[in-house]
Specification:
Number of domains: 1
Helix content: 25-40%
Number of strands: 8
Keywords: Magnesium, Metal-binding, Thiamine biosynthesis, Transferase
CATH architecture: Alpha-Beta Barrel
Organism: Nocardioides simplex (Arthrobacter simplex)
Radius of gyration: 15 Å
Largest sheet: 8 strands, parallel, barrel
CATH superfamily: Aldolase class I
Cofactor: Mg(2+)
Structural class: alpha/beta
Protein name: Thiamine-phosphate synthase
GO cellular component, one term: cytoplasm
Length: about 200
């Protein structure tokens, strides 16, 4: 697990910025697209890989192990209602497997099931995803750290990214901090300086 800053993306984002974002130090990208059919999602993932892998960035696919395997991605990120981590690990022993966690106990369970890292959050309130539970707060990051590399997510900007890194997170994952910023590339550089 080397990526420290994951940028989540969908087909609606300005994917022409991906090479520049990777060059700026965004070393992980997660393809999170719920609206595409399987073939189109594989094609999207391949285009992301082509844009950022030559620059050394990692690419994981949200929810879909089949797409990650078909596209040749580096890994898959699984939520609580997705394929079980243990099954993903058995089916794809060479892939990076991440698991969404909201407590230390969940991080321990993910580690025991074979996860490589835990996506931990939401740390702060966010509008990037509907139906999320209440924000966990920075203290929850410290409480859950030390079992697996934690990738904190939820309402993070450069200042908050530095805060969660200091609290014990291995890295951060962002959406709005880049895609809803008027200067996505400048925002990415700030994130890298704060949390890289």
């Amino acid at each position: 697990m080397s990526a420290r800053i994951f940028c989540l993306l969908s087909a609606a984002d300005d994917l022409s910025l991906l090479p520049a974002l990777a060059d700026a130090g965004i070393d992980g990208f997660q393809v999170r697209e719920k609206s595409l059919g399987t073939g189109d999602l594989v094609a999207l993932t391949r285009s992301v890989l082509a844009a950022v892998r030559p620059r050394g960035s990692t690419v994981v696919v949200n929810d879909r192990l089949d797409v990650a395997l078909a596209a040749g991605a580096d890994g898959v990120h699984l939520g609580a209602s997705d394929l079980a981590v243990a099954d993903a690990r058995r089916l794809a022993p060479g892939l990076l497997v991440g698991a969404t966690c909201r407590s230390r106990d969940e991080v321990v369970a993910a580690a025991e099931a074979g996860a490589d890292y835990a996506g931990f959050g939401p740390v702060h309130a966010t509008s990037s995803k509907d139906g999320l539970p209440a924000a966990l707060g920075v203290a929850a990051v410290t409480a859950a750290a030390g079992v697996l590399p934690l990738v904190a997510i939820g309402g993070l900007d450069a200042a908050r990214a530095a805060e969660v890194r200091a609290a014990g997170a291995h890295g951060v994952a962002v959406i709005g901090a880049i895609w809803r910023h008027p200067d996505p590339l400048g925002a990415a550089k700030e994130l890298v300086a704060a949390a890289g």
